[in-house]
Amino acid sequence: MAKLRLFLWLWLPLMAFSQTARLDDAERGRIISLENAWNQAEQQKDINALELLLAPELIYVEFDGTLMTKPQYMASVQSADIHATHIVSESMSVSIYGNVAVVNGIYRESGVKDGKPFALRERFIDTWIRHSGSWMCVASQSTLISR
After folding, report:
1. Distances (CA, A) of 38 to 1, 15, 55, 81, 140
2. Is 103 exposed, middle or buried (0-12, 13-18, 19+ CB in 10 A)?
3. Residue 9: what pLDDT?
4. Contacts (Cβ under 8 Å, ≥6 apart) of 78
5. Would you call 92 helix, strand, or coil by DSSP?
6. Which candidate, 66, 90, 78, 79, places its Cα nearest to that of 142?
7. Which of 49, 28, 19 is nearest to 130 (CA)?
8. Contact call for residues 74 and 50 (beta carbons, < 8 A)
């Protein structure tokens, strides 16, 4: 009987950890999908999709240090002066802390701005919160990676 109790005492926490790890993996995958959806929405200037992804209190810091609120960021996405032809994130990693997730990775964007071609490569960090079962980004910051 003592061996059975010892086995259960050791086994049950491992099972709980395994279940939590699988849930965290599923959430990580969900957040990476949201990051990719954000890229598509920005490239297509899809404001409705961005409304669902970005929290009302979003703080967005551009690679040049420009600080934007959500309305300012949305206006920048809608600008006719910039047309992104390719936006992709890579090397993303997600850390989850309860109802908060932090994503870091590399962001690449190319297109035309003010009539001239551009290409950017940036390291980014995004902070997502889970509210009522949905994830929304509350903060985003990027740093230009020099060539």
Report:
1. 55, 35, 13, 20, 12
2. buried
3. 66
4. 45, 47
5. strand
6. 66
7. 28
8. yes
Tell me the pLDDT tens digit for each residue of 84-130: 999 999 999 999 999 999 999 999 999 999 999 999 999 999 999 99
Say if strands 54-61 and 134-144 run parallel, antiparallel, or are unpaired. Answer: parallel
**Predicted confidence (pLDDT) per residue in 26-82, tens digit:** 999 999 999 999 999 999 999 999 999 999 999 999 999 999 999 999 999 999 999
Which has the closest alpha carbon to 120: 142, 141, 144, 91?
Answer: 144
Which of helix, strand or coil describes residue 65?
Answer: coil
Residue whose entry in the numeric block shows the structure tokens 């902070």 = 127
